[in-house]
Every structure is written in structure tokens, then in C-alpha cells.
Specification:
Blueprint lengths: L2 H18 L3 H19 L8 E5 L6 E5 L2 E2 L5 H32 L3 E10 L2 E5 L4 E4 L15 E12 L2 E7 L3 H11 L1 H5 L3 E8 L3 E7 L7 H6 L4 H9 L5 E6 L4 H8 L7 E5 L4 E6 L4 H5 L4 H10 L2 E6 L3 H31 L3 H10 L3
Parallel strand pairs: 6-8, 10-11, 13-14
Antiparallel strand pairs: 1-2, 2-3, 4-5, 4-7, 5-6, 7-8, 9-10, 12-13
Length: 364
């Protein structure tokens, strides 16, 4: 092998070790095994266990030995150099992938900007910067349309073992995406002065988020909504305007909290059964449709948020209450009147004994 090639080999090996963090001894051992595999390919039928390879890390010169006998074929240096180059490049790619996956392992549970690269059946492959991630169909928003080169904000969900090693899974349907967007858009949430307590979400349709602040002077709901709704509107825009977001204030008192979860319905009365984890809610007639929501969505999300089964009943109006009361009183009076009349008739009816006396007197 010419001196220039040997020098380049040494420089390349050291550069890989310094810049990529690949250990030189690991690379050399891998190259030796690859050289042996290349030798076996040219000499089928040999027992590879009886052969060994040496590789000079300074010159890059490779030799094959069989029981301490040099059996290096003529011109094998060129084959060894090509093999070494391939192995080094492979090691670089493996090391880079490991470093990228390690970096994303730290970032799991956060949001990232991505772009749709291609479609793999029902799954979507998303470019998230240094690597590609997969978004399975169950992590997609059902009514959201995706197209190539579309820019998306995604939630870094988890790392799983795939066909080609470890792969990153991202989501648009996870509650963590909504929490991450609020952290990005609302400084008070990012700083911790406003805390996200609960999230109930039906992706692509509607979400409810309960926020709380223990610091005086901070309005948690107002902070998340922003001036003229600019903050929450920015988050809604991330979903293409598909998802409505209700922001409510978390309450320690469960009755008050359940009343808040049924927003935008107001003036509700709540009765709690702690043993059965149910809440019986009485709502004014004009607020009943708001409390239930379209196809029961509002009460369903409120139930998820509060962790109670919520039963809603319309509260009677004042006129209805008066009418019900009068009707009840009328029924009671009527019942009392019938009872008194029956008693009077019974008192006027002669007894059998008196009838017998009358008959005797008449000579019957």
C-alpha cells in the first residue's frame, strides 16, 4: 500500500475517533472481522476460525494469517482498504444514529417542529430535524388532512424497537401536545407560575384544560387566553382551527370544580356522591343544552376532567316550581276532602243492630 494511502488511513481513523467519538480499537476490530469475511468470500470452503487478520493502525496495512503463516494474497491491500473505508463509514453512521437517539431520549415528553416527508401505508414519516420519526395512525388527528412537506408541531411520545433498530414515535393526538403548546405560547406556564392541572381532549374536535396558580396577582385563565385571545388562538391555529379549547380554573373544592368543568354553562348546582364517584348536577333550562353539549360532548369532557360520572338534570323555573307546588297542594286538599266525606258517610250509616230493633218494633 503506498505511503500516501497509509497516511490517509491513519488520519481518517484518528479523525473519526476525535470527531465522532468512535473508539479506535472497536473500529479496528470491526475492520479485521470485515477483512476476514472478504478473504473468505474469495476463498469459499475454508474454516474461518483457523484464520486471523492483522491491521496496522498507522499504515493501514492488512495481513491474513493461517496458523501463524502469512497467506495474504497479492493485491489484497486494495481490498482491505476498501473494506476498512466501508466499515468506518458504517461505524460513523451507527454512532451518529446512537447519538441522535440518545439526544431524543432526553427530549421525550416535549414538542418539536416537524415536516411530513412521506407516507408509509397508514403511517406518516416526519422529519424532526436530525432524524426521521413515525406517526402511527392512532396518534394522528382523525379529521386532520396531511400532505407532503406540511409543517407540523408534534409531541415526542416514545422510542420503540423497530425493524431497523430504535425509532422515534411522535403524536398529534396525545394530550402532551396541547400541554407543550401552552408551555411554548404562555410564558407563565413555561416558568411554572401557572400550572396545568388536568386535560381532557377529543383530538380535532374539542379540549378542556384546567389551570391553576398559587401566586397572588396571576389570573391563570387570563394568562392562557392572552390579550384579546391571542395566545389561545395561536394554539388553535396549530390544529388548523379544527379543535375548540375551553380553559377553566382548577378548584380544590370538587363541587366548584365540577361546576367549572361544565363551562360555558353557568349557575349550576352540584350534589356529590363520594362513594360512587358520581355528581348530580342541576342546570337551569336555558343552560341545559350548553351543559350537555353537542352529542353530549361537553358533559363527557367534563366527566373526564373531574374524574366523576356526571348526571345532568334541568332545574325547574320559578313558574314551574310554583305550579308544581300548587298542584301538589291541590292534590293534598282533594285527598283530604275525599277522606272527610267518606268518614261522614260512615257515621250516618246505621248499624246492623239498629236495623234489627226497627224491624222488631214494626212486627216484622
Amino acid at each position: 500500500m503506498p505511503a500516501m494511502q497509509r497516511s490517509e488511513f491513519s488520519l481518517a481513523l484518528n479523525q473519526v475517533a476525535n470527531e465522532r467519538g468512535v473508539d479506535i480499537s472497536v473500529v479496528l476490530d470491526t475492520v479485521k472481522n470485515a477483512i476476514l469475511a472478504a478473504y473468505k468470500k474469495d476463498h469459499p470452503g475454508i474454516e474461518i476460525e483457523e484464520y486471523s487478520a492483522t491491521l496496522d493502525k498507522n499504515s493501514g496495512e492488512a495481513k491474513i494469517f493461517s496458523k501463524d503463516k502469512d497467506v495474504t494474497p497479492p493485491g489484497f491491500g486494495r481490498i482491505a482498504a476498501q473494506t476498512a473505508k466501508q466499515v468506518i463509514l458504517q461505524k460513523i453512521r451507527e454512532k451518529e444514529k446512537e447519538a441522535i437517539i440518545s439526544d431524543f431520549k432526553i427530549r421525550i415528553g416535549t414538542v418539536a417542529n416537524g415536516m411530513v416527508l412521506r407516507f408509509a401505508g397508514p403511517n406518516i414519516i416526519v422529519d424532526v430535524g436530525k432524524t426521521e420519526a413515525v406517526m402511527p395512525v392512532h396518534e394522528q388527528i382523525p379529521n386532520e388532512k396531511y400532505h407532503l412537506n406540511q409543517r407540523l408541531t408534534v409531541y415526542l411520545l416514545k422510542i420503540v424497537e423497530g425493524f431497523k433498530g430504535e425509532e422515534l414515535v411522535v403524536s398529534r393526538a396525545n394530550n402532551g401536545l396541547l400541554a407543550g403548546l401552552f408551555k411554548r405560547e404562555v410564558p407563565e406556564v413555561a416558568q411554572g407560575s401557572v400550572e396545568i392541572k388536568d386535560i381532557a381532549r377529543e383530538p380535532g374536535s374539542r379540549s378542556k384544560i384546567a389551570v391553576y396558580s398559587s401566586q397572588s396577582g396571576i389570573d391563570p385563565v387570563g394568562s392562557c387566553v392572552g390579550q384579546k385571545g391571542v395566545r389561545v388562538q395561536a394554539i388553535i391555529a396549530e390544529f388548523g382551527g379544527l379543535e375548540k379549547i375551553d380553559i377553566i380554573q382548577w378548584q380544590e373544592n370538587i363541587k366548584d370544580y365540577i361546576g367549572q368543568t361544565l363551562s360555558p354553562a353557568k349557575n349550576v348546582r352540584v350534589e356529590i356522591n363520594e362513594d360512587e364517584k358520581t355528581a348530580h348536577v342541576f342546570v337551569p333550562p336555558e343552560e341545559l343544552s350548553l351543559a350537555i353539549g353537542k352529542e353530549g360532548q361537553n358533559v363527557r369532557l367534563a366527566s373526564k376532567l373531574a374524574g366523576y360520572r356526571i348526571e345532568i338534570e334541568g332545574e325547574p323555573t320559578v313558574a314551574e316550581a310554583i305550579a308544581n307546588k300548587e298542584a301538589k297542594e291541590s292534590e293534598e286538599k282533594q285527598a283530604k276532602g275525599v277522606s272527610a266525606k267518606n268518614e261522614k258517610k260512615a257515621s250516618k250509616k246505621p248499624s246492623i243492630k239498629k236495623k234489627a230493633v226497627k224491624k222488631i218494633k214494626k212486627g216484622e
